[in-house]
Amino acid sequence: MNLTFSPEEQAFREEVRRFLADALPSELRERVRLGRHLRADDHIRWQNILSDQGWLAANWPVEHGGPGWGPVQRHIFDEECAAAHAPTVVPFGVNMVAPVIMKFGSVEQQQHYLPRILNNQDWWCQGYSEPGAGSDLAGLSTRAVLDGDHYIVNGQKTWTTLGQHANMMFCLVRTDPNAKKQAGISFLLMDMQTPGITVRPIITLDGAHEVNEVFLDNVRVPVENRVGEEGQGWTCAKFLLTHERTGIAGLGHAKQALRHLKSLASRMQHRGKPLLSLPSFRQRVVKAELELMALEVTNLRVIAAARDGGVPGAESSLLKVRGSELRQEISELTRRALGPAALPFFPEFLQGDESLDDEYAQGAAASAQYFNRRKLSIYGGANEIQKSIVAKTILGM
Amino acid sequence: MDFALTDEQRMLEETLTRLVADQVTPEQRRAMLEAPAQGASPLWRTFAELGLLHMPFSEDTGGLGGDGTDVMIIMQALGRGLVPEAYLFGLVMPGQLLALCANSAQQERWLDPLLEGEHQLALAWQEHTARYDAFGISTQASQQDGQWQLNGRKDVVMNLGSAAATLVTAQLPTGKLGVFIVPANTQGVTLQTYRTMDEQPAGDLTLNSVALPLENCLSEDVSDALAEVLALGRAALCAEAIGAMETACDQTLAYLKERKQFGLPLATFQSLQHRMVDMHLHLEQSRSMAILAATSLSLPADERDYKIAAAKAYCGESARFIAEQAIQLHGGMGMTEECYVAHYAKHLVMFDHYLGDSDYHLETVSEQLDAA
């Protein structure tokens, strides 16, 4: 066994680093570094740069316009992007609906949607959760009734991330209320301009507008916008979730956040000495460092298995649980590191273009991010759901 | 980056797994623990036939040139069966120290028979007053009348009673740390032997004006070699703990599936499922750390010691967690001598006391944190 990257992989890392140093606009890098919210234009700007480079669709095979990277290269790319403070690619199109369209979609759907995702023409959002169906996703009740060559859709979706910018939504709907829970679900693609769709913001406890409610009132969706067969939606959804959970450990982000924490705690003073030398604080940083080391090797084990032909399975649940816990702990320590400076809240600075004195700018996002990061153990299947998945699929309980 | 085993390593793993399953059942293990220690056990002779005694040593000292992964495979298999043989403490650690610092005559006298299974050794590095620190010890050695004279006391020396000789560290007048080979029955040496909480043979060694010929000094500056041997020992212990954690998890899971309460198998209760998953998460994260340790042995000393300290600290805490959960999930049965998982739990808790506990190793990580 060895944990070192091959010379080719190291050369690839250098190539990614050079690209990021040259191509990532400094305004974007600063916005991400300071934890300020990205505007729609910011996302599009960066994704166009990646698209021009041929690196937007990191997970795609070459025949659809992907770079043909393996799991190791994708891991290196993610890690370097996080280290360089590059904006995160909005995943709903390129990483979520695209694999479903490739796997289950018709040739027409592939030819129409995939190029539009590649060149950022469409902004996709996800219509999965409902007020009555969270962790129990298959309990969804949004109803689609066939009417000629259209489905008429009625219901409500929620937690629709960045839906306020989206022009397309992929949606799980119930087409057969009499079938068994999972069997009556279909996977539909909707144009957000269709009459009857209303998007309302949900403001989260950090003051951010990241998620939305989407109301569907007699929305007419052409039958050709269904992906796969009627009643096959759950198969699509499960396939998508395995993709969603790959890389969900957020290891690159955890590494970057821990570097930031150590640097911050070395600068912050406690009785004339760096905070990082305060034993109780330092101990928690050391524990986070250990957890990160373990998580990094576990992640490499999963990547190596995927490289050698394995499918990401329940191990990704393990990474999700421990990765989210670690990122939450780091966000907790980062907030604490600021001391009283964690108290002032400057939403205009975080959301808009306003400037702020440097003494506050550097830590302005810490408390908000702490609250924002609570989502990590809730979304993508709450950590308790992940544990139940491991209990069932790995331990056979 | 590669986590796959070579064909030879896979064969080694399969052979050992079968051997342990066949020859170290709970009853056989009990019998082995109760058998009087007289020379090599049948199992030790099998180890010799399989080449295990040669495996961790370099080819130029007569070994098979196995690396950290080979040691990990062996230790993990031994841990799965809680095999009561002093493979690490009686062979690997004293043998490596001999290989690193003894001259050829000393190696011929002490290392060659060790590899042939003709005797076992012990390494006495630990003293209560220095706790887990191998270097701040008080045992003294000085030369008088063309001989070395040793005075001091070594504590919790593993495999002491079965060792043909013990490698003893001592402070020299030069301020350096030396290491001496002290044959059993040397005049001035007193042994008090006992078993540890987890049933391993150990003892204390008192050295009262022990006179040794000059050639019994293996090195007058052993610090680097000792650090290397301790690093190897810690990585090996992590691997052994992974094996024991696997068995503790397997037995607990089997018990949850079989034991019924309120008319249902315990495995159907969600709170118990999640506890079981937490054990599994600790195991897999610790396995990653044990792999990190096993693959760090040939790194430069600072980096090696940082990573191995991290691994030992991490595994120490996970091992205790798994042990406590295993007892809890077995309910009252987990409290009994008769319940096999209790023996694993004892080893997994006491594991933290061998070669430095989590507090000791966390301090090492903490001291080097910024450099990391």
Task: Label this structure with key terms.
heterodimer; A: about 400 residues; alpha+beta; Butyryl-CoA Dehydrogenase, subunit A, domain 2; Butyryl-CoA Dehydrogenase, subunit A, domain 3; 3 domains; 4-stranded mixed sheet; 4-stranded antiparallel sheet; 14 helices; about 15% strand; globular; B: about 375 residues; Butyryl-Coa Dehydrogenase, subunit A, domain 1; 11 helices
Kindly state the number of beta strands of chain B: 10
Taken in chain order, the helices and strands of chain A follow as HHHHHHEEEEEEEEHHEEHHHHHH
**CATH level 3 topology of the largest domain in chain A:** Butyryl-CoA Dehydrogenase, subunit A, domain 3
Shape designation of chain A: globular
Q: Kindly estimate the percentage of residues of chain B that lie in beta strands according to DSSP.
A: 15-25%
CATH superfamily of the largest domain in chain B: Butyryl-CoA Dehydrogenase, subunit A, domain 3
The average pLDDT score of chain A comes to 94
SSE topology string of chain B: HHHHHHEEEEEEEEHEEHHHH
**Largest pleated sheet of chain B:** 4 strands, mixed
Output the radius of gyration of chain A. Answer: 22 Å
Structural class of chain B: alpha+beta
Cα gyration radius of chain B (Å):
21 Å
What would your notes on this structure say?
Chain B: Its cofactor is FAD. The complex is a heterodimer of chains A (397) and B (372). Chain A is of the alpha+beta class and 397 residues long. Chain A is 47% helix and 15% strand. Chain A folds into three domains: 7-89, no CATH class; 124-231, Butyryl-CoA Dehydrogenase, subunit A, domain 2 (Beta Barrel), CATH 2.40.110; 246-393, Butyryl-CoA Dehydrogenase, subunit A, domain 3, CATH 1.20.140. Chain A contains 14 helices and ten strands. A four-stranded mixed beta sheet of chain A has the order 1-4-5-8. Chain A has a four-stranded antiparallel beta sheet with strand order 2-3-7-6, with no helix packed on it. In chain A, strand 6 (197-203) and strand 7 form a beta hairpin. In chain A, helix 5 runs antiparallel to helix 6. Chain A is globular. The mean pLDDT of chain A is 94. With 372 residues, chain B is α+β, with helices and mostly antiparallel strands. Chain B has three domains: 7-118, Orthogonal Bundle (Butyryl-Coa Dehydrogenase, subunit A, domain 1), CATH 1.10.540.10; 121-221, Butyryl-CoA Dehydrogenase, subunit A, domain 2; 224-367, Butyryl-CoA Dehydrogenase, subunit A, domain 3 (Up-down Bundle). Helix content of chain B is 50%, strand content 17%. Chain B has eleven helices and ten strands. Chain B has helices at 7-23, 26-34, 42-50, 68-81, 87-101, 104-115, 223-258, 270-294, 301-329, 340-350, 358-367, and strands spanning 120-124, 140-144, 147-158, 163-171, 177-183, 189-195, 201-213, 217-219, 260-261, 264-265. In chain B, a hairpin with a 2-residue loop joins strand 2 and strand 3 (147-158). The model of chain B has no long low-confidence stretch (mean pLDDT 96). Chains A and B meet through helix 9, helix 10 and helix 14 of A and helix 7, helix 8, helix 9 and helix 11 of B.
